[in-house]
Amino acid sequence: MTWLMLLAACLLTCLGQIAQKLAVEHWRGAFPGIAAALGSRRLWLAVFCMGMGLLSWLLVLQRMDVGIAYPMLGLNFVLITLSARYVFNESIDSRHWFGVGLIVAGVILLGGEA
After folding, report:
1. How far is 90 from 83, CA to CA, in rounded Å?
2. In the chain, where the domains are located
3. Which of 2, 41, 28, 21 is CA-nearest to residue 81?
4. What does each of the 114 residues of the chain score in pLDDT, given as a tens digit?
5. What is the secondary structure of 25-56 as a DSSP string?
6. Helix count (H) and strand count (E) of the chain?
7. How far apart are CA 55 and CA 75, in angstroms?
8. Where does residue 113 rank: exposed (0-12), middle (13-18), buried (19+ CB within 10 A)?
């Protein structure tokens, strides 16, 4: 159950980051002002996802050593890189992919300790 909460924290945080990106892309480079920004559904989706991710993270910290749990958040780098490539069509160079591979290897190594 704790591992599912950890995965939920990662996914919700990633979704929050994607929603933030969608919000600012919708503004097309010009900040619309506080009132308009606060009316953005994408921004509120980001706030909701990040808030739920935080709550999930707090539940994880109750049940898992921080020395194991925190490095697992490295999966966010992997998820965001995949989102950048496949959702936003951003180019990712081979050096970046190599770093993602190292992160995945580290998560696997540390996950084996739990």
Report:
1. 9
2. 2-111
3. 21
4. 888 999 999 999 999 999 999 988 878 778 888 888 888 899 999 999 999 999 999 999 999 888 888 888 888 999 999 999 999 999 999 999 999 999 999 888 877 665
5. HHTTTS---HHHHHT-HHHHHHHHHHHHHHHH
6. 6, 0
7. 18
8. exposed
